[in-house]
From TrEMBL:
It comes from Chitinimonas viridis. The keyword Hydrolase applies. The lineage of its organism: Bacteria, Pseudomonadati, Pseudomonadota, Betaproteobacteria, Neisseriales. Keywords: Glycosidase, Hydrolase. Its EC number is 3.2.2.-. The keyword Transport does not apply. It is an enzyme of class 3 (hydrolase). This is ADP-ribosylglycohydrolase family protein.
Length: 381
């Protein structure tokens, strides 16, 4: 179709013209919603990651002692520094941009992005993710390099896949499988990432209905495999807890997670979905709930932020939080450009960041995180 909205508006409409105009207007509105959801997912995830980073590894009790007031970006005051969670989401978005639905190409591009990423020595890489990516450098082909682990790596890459492929469930499952097996082979890692992707897809379609989500997740959770029965039981408890209106912190405490939600995808997914379903429209409230549940909170908060952002769009995120995203390379502008390119079919933002600069940035990041970690050794305990 070559006509533009303006052309139709000023071209003198007959009955067919109105119908065509309505269709075009609907198409434009859909594209705008998609842009909003993609940008909201990337930016919301980055905000959650950056806010959670300062509190990573703390128990709920210690966190309450250290930070009784509002949660802030504390690794470098006022600046939202992001970790592997945002980087994996952004690299996945870049791979989607380059591959445009071709799963083989998606796997190849994502594998190269992750190779370059690990070679820039990022801080705080998960054990399984690190091992799997160095195996790629040793020549083991993508898809055979994964490590048997049920960690959080694949879930970090899942929400953006869910939003981008929200209307294509088979393509989503295929992309998700390729993304997961680049690092993890445990059935729970793929099932957990699939749960996050489906929740993000649902959020991007404007729904946060727990019953609809339970229906969507059922086929994923009904798979056989190591630990899947426990995963199903935990998810059932999560939906019951949400229905009762319990806080996420109370749900986590009832599971006996006194040290917080650690890096096990089954626990991470249950806690993240609980916080999202409890506050689907309110990023700050959802992040407060998940971060105060303690543990691996940059990852859990990144997931929650991505889900809330996919639902409310970038316009529903707190502007001050977005403006604080001034890290390099994954700042507000770059993440927004990436989302727009994904929605409109452009190429802008598809290049990997300059590798030597990434190395330097990671060194500075490590020093800041270590400094922050030392400050956290001080009282109150
Ligand atoms: Mg992280």
């Amino acid at each position: 179709m070559t006509k533009t909205c303006d052309g139709l508006l000023f071209g003198g409409m007959n009955g067919g013209g109105y119908a065509e105009y309505n269709l075009l207007a609907e198409g434009v509105a859909m594209q705008q919603r998609r842009e909003q959801a993609l940008a909201g997912c990337l930016l919301g995830g980055a905000i959650g990651d950056a806010l959670g980073l300062a509190y990573e590894g703390l128990s709920p009790r210690r966190l309450a002692r250290l930070s009784p007031g509002p949660l802030r970006f504390r690794v470098f005051p006022g600046l939202a520094l992001v970790s592997d969670d945002t980087e994996h989401a952004a690299l996945t978005a870049q791979a989607l941009l380059r591959s445009r639905g071709d799963t083989n190409r998606f796997e190849r591009v994502l594998a190269w992005r992750l190779r370059l990423w690990i070679a820039a020595l990022p801080a705080g890489v998960g054990w399984a993710t690190g091992r799997a990516l160095w195996k790629l450098w040793l020549g083991i082909p993508p898809g055979r390099n994964g490590v048997h682990s049920a960690g959080n790596g694949p879930a970090m890459r899942a929400a953006i896949l869910g939003v981008y492929l929200a209307r294509q469930p088979h393509a989503l499952a295929e992309h998700l499988a390729r993304s997961t097996r680049l690092t993890h082979t445990d059935v729970r890692a793929e099932a957990g990432a699939h749960c996050i992707a489906l929740a993000a897809a649902q959020a991007s379609q404007g729904s946060s209905d727990p019953l609809q989500l339970a229906h969507l997740l059922a086929p994923v959770l009904e798979q056989d495999g190591e630990g899947m029965a426990d995963f199903r039981m935990l998810m059932r408890a999560m939906f019951e807890s949400v229905a009762k209106g319990e806080r996420t912190q109370a749900f986590c405490a009832a599971q006996g997670w006194q040290r917080g939600v650690l890096g096990y995808v089954v626990h991470t997914v249950a806690a993240a979905l609980h916080a999202w379903l409890s506050h689907p429209q309110d990023l700050d409230a959802a992040l407060e709930d998940i971060i105060r549940s303690g543990g691996d909170v940059d990852s859990t908060a990144a997931l929650v932020g991505g889900l809330v952002g996919a639902g409310v769009g970038v316009q529903g995120l707190p502007p001050a939080r977005c403006a604080a995203l001034r890290d390099w390379p994954w700042n507000q502008q770059r993440l927004s450009r990436l989302a727009i390119a994904l929605a409109r079919g452009g190429r802008e933002g598809s290049l990997y960041p300059c590798w030597p600069l990434a190395l330097l940035r990671n060194l500075l990041f490590l020093l800041l995180v270590l400094g922050h970690g030392l400050r956290r050794l001080l009282p109150p305990y």
